[in-house]
Design goal:
transmembrane helix, alpha+beta, membrane, elongated, 4-stranded antiparallel β-sheet, 2 domains, transmembrane
Length: 230
C-alpha cells in the first residue's frame, strides 16, 4: 500500500509461487479463490506466468484512509464471520502534529482451508496428499505486506524498514492471524509556522530591548561628571 500526500492510498497485492510448486498441484490453481475475493471487492486483477514464478497482481485506489476503513475485504462467498483484512486508525490532533495510530489484522487461515477443500475436490486425492502440496506451496511463497509513506513512521512493529523508515514491510503468515501496527506523526505546518513566527518576533523584541539597554549604559558611562561646588 502506498499512502499519498493528499491522504489517498493505492493498494497493490501480489500473490505468487515458484514454478516448481506446479508439480504438486497439477492443473489446480491455488490463487483462484483469492482472485475472486479481490475482484468482488473492487480490485483490478491480472495473472502472470513467468519463467521462475506464477501468480497474480491486483490493485485498487482509495480516496482516503476512511474509505479504506469502511470497505473491509470480505471472503468471496460473503459468509465469513470475520474480515480477512480489518483496519482501524485513531486520529489525534496536537499543536504541532496530527498523530495517526494505525492497526490492521490479516487472517488468511479461512482462505487457506477453503483452498485445501477445493483442491481435494478438484484433484480427487486424499487429504494427506493435498496437505503435503499445501505445505510445499507455503514454503515457496513470499507473502509480505508493504506500506510506503510520504514521511518517516514514528514507530511500528514492521519486520523490515527501508527508505529511512518511510517504507515498512511485514512478513505475513498465511495460516495464522497477523497484527500490524504503526504510528505516524504528520507535521501541522501552519501551526509550526505561526509558532516559529511568534518566537522570532519575541527574539526581535528582546534584541531591540537589549540594544536600547546597552546604549543607555554607554551614555551614562561617557556623561561628564559635574564639578563639585565650593
Amino acid at each position: 500500500m502506498k499512502i499519498n500526500q493528499n491522504g489517498s492510498a493505492d493498494m497493490n497485492v501480489r500473490f505468487g509461487a515458484e514454478q516448481q510448486v506446479k508439480k504438486y498441484l497439477g492443473d489446480f490453481n491455488p490463487f483462484v479463490y483469492i482472485q475472486s475475493m479481490l475482484q468482488n471487492n473492487g480490485f483490478a486483477v491480472k495473472g502472470y506466468d513467468r519463467k521462475q514464478d506464477f501468480g497474480f497482481e491486483a490493485s485498487r485506489h482509495y480516496q482516503s484512509l476512511e474509505d479504506f476503513q469502511q470497505q473491509q475485504i470480505k471472503p468471496a462467498s460473503g459468509k465469513g464471520i470475520a474480515d480477512i483484512v480489518s483496519f482501524q486508525y485513531n486520529k489525534k490532533e496536537q499543536l504541532f502534529f496530527t498523530v495517526y495510530d494505525v492497526k490492521s489484522k490479516m487472517d488468511f487461515s479461512g482462505v487457506y482451508q477453503d483452498v485445501l477443500a477445493t483442491a481435494r475436490k478438484q484433484l480427487g486425492t486424499t487429504a494427506v496428499a493435498v496437505q503435503y502440496a499445501a505445505d510445499q506451496l507455503q514454503k515457496h511463497m513470499d507473502l509480505q505486506f508493504k506500506v510506503s509513506l510520504p514521511i518517516q513512521a514514528a514507530s511500528s512493529n514492521a519486520d523490515k524498514k527501508t527508505d529511512g523508515g518511510k517504507t515498512l514491510a511485514w512478513n505475513i503468515n498465511p495460516i495464522a492471524k497477523n497484527e500490524l501496527a504503526m504510528t505516524v506523526k504528520v507535521p501541522n505546518i501552519r501551526n509550526i509556522a505561526i509558532a516559529a513566527g511568534g518566537a522570532l518576533l519575541l527574539l526581535l523584541i528582546l534584541f531591540i530591548m537589549w540594544i536600547r539597554h546597552r546604549r543607555k549604559k554607554k551614555r551614562a558611562a561617557v556623561q561628564p561628571e559635574e564639578p563639585a561646588k565650593e
